[in-house]
Amino acid sequence: MSSHNLINIKKETMQIKEVQDTLRRLKNTNISQGDIAKAIGTTRSNVSQLFAKNSSLDDEKIEKIEKFFNIKFDTNGEKSLENLIKVPVYSGYDMENANGYIYISGGKNAKPLCPFAIEVASDSMAPYINRGDFAVFDGGFNSIEDGKIFLIRFEGNFFIKRILDNINNIILKSDNRDYTDISINSFKNEKIEVVGRLHSLLRFEI
Question: With a threshold of 0.70, does the pTM exceed it?
Answer without folding.
Answer: no
